[in-house]
């Protein structure tokens, strides 16, 4: 007689490094950031304003476009920096940049009408949640306890003397 047992196949749940979590969060932030700007083009009057040389209330100029490029380039660079910077610098950089982007993201609601409240509320809400995740991940970055080298060195010297 065959006896069949059903055992649950558990999915492998490997720990993810803080670096990978930060890079993934910045990548998600970038996708959302870009798509919010893209979908904003569908609002009535936005493209007409751009064709007239205005973005929101600002004249389209090399300075404006440079600032806009920098505002997208910084989070894009954070994807790479989160994977490559040394831990201490990485942690500090993520804490500073994410902290600065929270008010910057909230500024997107400036001048919005109640008709667009859900669009801006959802987009800004998700952006802020991603930034909060980045802040939490960087803030709680695990520390490795320092190892006292003296006993190991002493033991090695004792072994060599014998």
Description of the molecule:
The protein is mainly α. The chain is built from six helices and two strands. It has helices spanning 18-40, 46-51, 62-84, 87-106, 117-139, 149-161; strands at residues 54-55, 58-59. Strand 1 and strand 2 form a beta hairpin. The model has no long low-confidence stretch (mean pLDDT 89).
Question: Could you write a compact summary of the structure shown?
Answer:
The chain is 67% helix and 2% strand.
List keywords for this structure.
single chain; 162 residues; mainly alpha; two-stranded antiparallel sheet; 6 helices; 2 strands; 67% helix; flat
Average pLDDT figure? 89
Overall helicity: 55-70%
N- to C-terminal separation?
A: 65 Å
Number of strands: 2
Gross morphology is: flat
Query: What low-confidence regions span 5 or more consecutive residues with pLDDT below 50?
Result: none
The whole-angstrom Rg is 25 Å
Structural class: mainly alpha
**Beta-strand fraction estimate:** under 5%
User: Helix and strand succession?
Assistant: HHEEHHHH
Largest sheet: 2 strands, antiparallel
Q: Strand order across the biggest sheet?
A: 1-2
Count up the helices: 6
Topology:
Elements: H1 18-40, H2 46-51, E1 54-55, E2 58-59, H3 62-84, H4 87-106, H5 117-139, H6 149-161
């Amino acid at each position: 007689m065959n006896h069949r047992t059903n055992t649950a196949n558990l999915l492998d749940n490997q720990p993810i490094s803080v670096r990978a979590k930060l890079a993934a969060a910045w990548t998600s932030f970038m996708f959302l950031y870009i798509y919010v700007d893209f979908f904003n083009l569908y609002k009535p009057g936005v493209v007409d304003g751009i064709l007239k040389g205005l973005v929101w209330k600002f004249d389209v100029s090399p300075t404006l476009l440079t600032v806009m490029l920098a505002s997208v380039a910084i989070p894009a660079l954070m994807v790479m920096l989160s994977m490559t910077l040394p831990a201490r610098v990485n942690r500090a950089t993520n804490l500073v940049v994410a902290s600065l982007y929270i008010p910057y993201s909230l500024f997107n609601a400036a001048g919005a009408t109640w008709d667009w409240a859900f669009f801006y509320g959802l987009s800004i809400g998700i952006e802020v949640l991603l930034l909060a995740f980045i802040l939490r991940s960087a803030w709680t970055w695990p520390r490795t306890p320092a190892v006292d080298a003296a006993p190991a060195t002493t033991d090695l010297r004792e072994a060599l003397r014998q």
